[in-house]
Design goal:
The structure holds 3 protein chains of 3 kinds. Chain A is built from 2 helices and 5 strands; from the N terminus they run E-E-E-E-E-H-H. Chain A is of the alpha+beta class. Chain A has 2 domains: about 50 residues, SH3 type barrels, CATH 2.30.30; about 30 residues, no CATH class. Chain A has a 5-stranded antiparallel beta sheet, with no helix packed on it. In chain A, a hairpin with a 2-residue loop joins strand 4 and strand 5. The longest helix of chain A is centred in the middle third of the chain and has 13 residues. By secondary structure, chain B is α/β, with parallel strands linked by helices. In chain B, the strands form 2 sheets. Chain B has a 6-stranded mixed beta sheet with strand order 4-3-5-6-11-10, sandwiched between helices. In chain B, strand 3, helix 5 and strand 4 form a beta-alpha-beta unit. In chain B, helix 1 packs parallel to helix 11, helix 6 runs parallel beside helix 7 and helix 7 packs across helix 12. The longest helix of chain B has 17 residues. In chain C, the strands form 3 sheets. A 7-stranded mixed beta sheet of chain C has the order 8-10-7-11-9-12-13. A 4-stranded mixed beta sheet of chain C has the order 1-6-4-5. Chain C is an alpha+beta fold. Chain C folds into 2 domains: about 160 residues, 60s Ribosomal Protein L30, Chain: A; about 160 residues, Phosphoribosyl-aminoimidazole Synthetase, Chain A, domain 2, CATH 3.90.650. Classes of the chains: A alpha+beta, B alpha/beta, C alpha+beta.
Chain lengths: ~100, ~375, ~375
């Protein structure tokens, strides 16, 4: 009951009395019901399960969590604020596609 | 994908795992409730990363958070009977298609001519009903609290649009009563729980402090990606080592204490609490939701009145013991022999996040050593 | 389904004499009867599209020659496949391209140079002629690109409601190259495993237009004829190539499991090295699918002697269809018969063969 993935809201419209969004999941766009997250606006990230947005993703919390986890067991290195910490945490093995079109794992 | 890929960083995962090794001084057994978490743990080999020494270890026990697995056999048989009827479009999530009923499954009903369709969202089923006024559209409403808001909205919208040909076959189950039932069962060995993160995104975690207090047990709201799971486990171990029993939130980017109030409001309107039978476990009081009287007209069981169901469970199947965490899948005598994903005896082998299927598919019939050292003799290219 | 929009009127401009077809905008039972209507279909649709001497003789059998400058060992490979895909037209292709490329690829991965195809159609009464024309047109184009000829065929019509519009069977023959000995049973411990490009494209392109699950995306089927690519690899490293397969239904997993089984070896891959397009990965996340089980229609997997790995990789990347080729793993003598993958966490997991179709999940 738990497959919910994060997506970015790129469009909002009323359809049949429901607040429906176009949500971008890494390049895939799906229609999602936003009725349960009236605070979510275009540009926000939200977690979606079976076509329903259930929660707005708190981007500050996400960053804090990643920073905290990346610090674990690290040597004495200063961790930079904001995007740099985020980017370092997001480092994965090199994309498998020479032309860069592949998902980094 | 943003907010997904970063939480799969292998290097950071290794660091958290090392931290867990460093702080574990005794043997601990932690249960992850949600089947999606089980799936992620097994697929990513998270349990292989945990300490497993003679004096200190962390063992993951896989819980019953697989709504597909716990849907009563009788309800599956009713679903099959309804789906086989002419004039019915039976809609379901993909997970339910191969779950075995007494004689058959939805896939076979489809093969025999039943109009069985996989949909992504319950709203798709509502749209189908609007577009096919001469058919009865039934949606198989299975799930925990995560899926309930979607199912609730589907009947709410159907009611608002005045659709007479839409109904919901309801099998909703709740997490807190399941946790209590497990903790109350004789021989329970679970010492801490990873709470289902997405269930909590809907319900919050305000229901859990009384449980933590009553059973003196740490409860950690946990996500699904490798870093989330390792962090949840780490926090549970810290509490266990310290002897504390708090409710903690390790999934702060998604979950708040109160949860989603808009969803909870509609849930309270559309559903009411009821006793529910959990396949393999038995009836747990007040552990499920059924449609409230105002929405009773949309109940598929009432609308179709299926009679003459004789359910027969396999005598060999120990899915119930697996679901309660009493045994690991490999400890079941039928595992890998009479019971495989090709010929499943119970739902835990069929459902993709059922513990038995996860074990089978991700290779737990290789010895731990064999699996750990696979590929190690090869040169890195 | 954008391709369908341009099907309103078939483009008969370079066909010999399309006029009688205009009388029948849809297929009727008579088209399969072998009589006048059936002949018209051959004369005015199939023949102009597939144009070649063997076909134009319109005999009960095509008379072909496999000797002479074609080279080859005198050994012939033959393959057949039936195509029942729904929907018939999808992003990046149609049943037509699949029907040609599918059989061409089966021959190519067997080490043969594909030469001739047959094409049999089972059409449903009421099937729009415009769609058939588009399918046939795409087959002609695919055959041309692959360098094969469609030299014989058949058409049958079934009653309305007894078929999904159009089913196609193609059978093909090719000539085996000299000095090439490949087979699923010939993989050896130590062999390097390479894949010619990104996996899961085709299956997710189909999924993106599948009723109930559809989503907006730029994913296109990778449907392509691989004989040119394979030719390049065999020319560069022929004797070092032990096994080749195109991972269609069941995806990369099926192919690697089958070879592990046939050769009685262990196959070990590194998940981080398996190329997957970002959008395909995202679509899989959305539906709860694993890319290793998703179908491909324009990719090849190679098992080669380890000393030839670099050469084969370079050869693949040099070719338009192999730009994203990657070395993904090795054959081992451990865990014989099984496919094991190193996860991004650094742990190992078994990738079991898929049972039936992979279904989207919510859990």
């Amino acid at each position: 009951m738990c497959l919910a993935i994060p997506g970015k809201v790129v469009g909002i419209a009323q359809e049949n009395g429901l607040r429906m969004g176009r949500v971008d999941f890494g390049g895939i766009i799906k229609r999602v019901c936003l009725d349960y997250v009236p605070e979510v606006e275009i540009g926000d990230y939200t977690i979606v399960h079976v076509g329903f947005a259930l929660s707005k993703i708190d981007e500050d919390e996400a960053l804090k969590t990643l920073e905290m986890l990346s610090q674990m067991g690290a040597l004495d290195e200063e961790l930079a604020e904001g995007d740099e910490a985020f980017a370092r945490a997001a480092v994965a093995p090199q994309s498998a596609c020479p032309d860069g079109s592949c998902a980094p794992k | 994908m943003k907010y997904l890929t970063e939480f799969r960083n292998g290097e950071v995962a290794q660091r958290i795992a090392r931290e867990i090794h460093a702080i574990t001084t005794r043997h601990w057994k932690i249960m992850e409730v949600c089947g999606g978490q089980t799936h992620s743990i097994i697929k990513n080999g998270i349990d292989q990363m945990l300490p497993s020494g003679p004096t200190a270890s962390v063992e993951m026990i896989h819980g019953p958070g697989c709504p597909v697995c716990v849907t009563p056999l009788e309800l599956i048989d009713k679903a099959l009977a309804i789906a086989a009827q002419p004039g019915v479009i039976f809609c379901s999530f993909g997970d339910m298609l191969r779950v075995p009923g007494t004689d058959s499954d939805l896939f076979q009903v489809k093969g025999a001519g039943g109009d069985v369709r996989i949909v992504y969202s319950p709203l798709d089923a509502v749209d189908l009903a609007a577009r096919n006024p001469d058919k009865q559209v039934v949606f198989f409403g299975v799930g925990f609290e995560t899926t309930a808001p979607a199912n609730a909205m589907s009947v709410h919208v159907a009611k608002r649009r005045g659709l007479k040909n839409f109904s919901l076959l309801v099998s909703h189950v709740l997490v807190p009563p399941a946790i209590s039932a497990i903790l109350d069962s004789p021989g329970n060995q679970v010492q801490a729980f990873l709470l289902a993160g997405h269930v909590s995104s809907v319900m919050g975690y305000w229901e859990y402090p009384p449980l933590a207090e009553k059973y003196k047990i740490p409860l950690v709201v946990t996500g699904f990606e490798p870093l989330d799971l390792l962090d949840g486990i780490r926090r549970a171990v810290i509490q266990l080592e310290k002897g504390s029993h708090e409710v903690e939130n390790a999934y702060e980017r998604i979950v708040t204490f109160e949860g989603n109030q808009h969803a909870q409001k509609l849930l309270a309107e559309v559903f009411e609490v009821t006793d529910r039978a959990w396949r393999g476990i038995g009836v747990i009081p007040n552990s499920g939701w059924r449609l409230a009287p105002a929405y009773q007209e949309f109940d598929a069981e009432a609308r179709f009145q299926i009679q003459g169901i004789h359910t027969v469970e396999s005598a060999l199947c120990r899915a119930g013991d697996v679901l309660r965490g009493a045994i690991k899948p490999a400890e079941c005598a039928a595992f890998g022999k009479q019971c495989t994903p090709r010929h499943p005896l119970g739902a835990t082998m069929v459902s993709s996040e059922g513990a038995c299927a996860a074990y089978f598919n991700y290779g737990r019939f290789l010895s731990v050593d064999e699996l750990a050292t696979a590929g190690s003799a090869l040169s890195n290219a | 389904m954008p391709e369908i929009d341009k099907l309103a009127t078939p483009d008969f401009s370079n066909w010999s004499c399309p006029l009688p077809l205009a009388d029948y905008p849809t297929i009727v039972m008579g088209h399969g009867g072998g009589g006048k209507l059936g002949n018209e279909l051959v004369e005015h649709l199939f023949l102009p599209a597939f144009r070649n001497p063997a076909l134009e003789n319109l005999g009960d059998a095509a008379v072909l020659s496999l000797t002479g400058k074609d080279g080859g060992s005198g050994r012939i490979a033959m393959s057949t496949d039936s195509f029942v895909v729904q929907p018939l037209f999808f992003p990046g292709g149609s049943i037509g391209e699949l029907a040609v490329n599918g059989t061409v690829n089966d021959l190519a991965v067997s080490g043969a140079i594909p030469k001739y195809l047959s094409a049999s159609f089972i059409l449903e009464e009421g099937f729009p002629l415009a769609q058939l024309a588009a399918i046939v047109e795409s087959m002609a184009a695919a055959a041309n690109t692959a360098g094969v000829q469609i030299v014989t065929g058949d058409t049958k019509v079934v009653e309305r409601g007894h078929g999904d519009g159009c089913y196609i069977n193609t059978a093909g023959i090719g000539v085996l190259r000299d000095g090439i000995n490949v087979g699923p049973h010939l993989a050896k411990p130590g062999d390097a495993i390479l894949v010619s490009g990104t996996i899961g494209d085709h299956g997710m392109a189909i999924m993106s237009v599948r009723e109930g699950l559809e989503f907006e995306s730029q994913i296109r089927s990778d449907c392509a004829a691989l004989n040119g690519l394979i030719d390049a690899v065999l020319t560069a490293a022929g004797p070092s190539v032990h096994a080749m397969r195109d991972p269609t239904r069941g995806g990369l997993s099926s192919t690697l499991n089958e070879i592990a089984n046939s050769s009685n070896v262990g196959v070990h891959i590194d998940e981080a090295r398996v190329p997957v397009l970002t959008e395909v990965q995202s679509a899989c996340e959305l539906l709860g699918l694993d890319p290793v089980y998703v179908a491909n229609e324009g990719k090849a997997v190679f098992f080669v002697a380890p000393e030839a790995a670099d050469l084969v990789l370079a050869t693949l990347r040099d070719h338009p269809l192999g730009r994203n080729a990657a070395l993904i793993g090795h054959v081992t003598s451990q865990h014989r018969g099984m496919l094991v993958a190193r996860t991004i966490m650094g742990s190992n997991r078994v990738i079991a063969p898929q049972i039936g179709e992979q279904l989207p999940r919510i859990c």
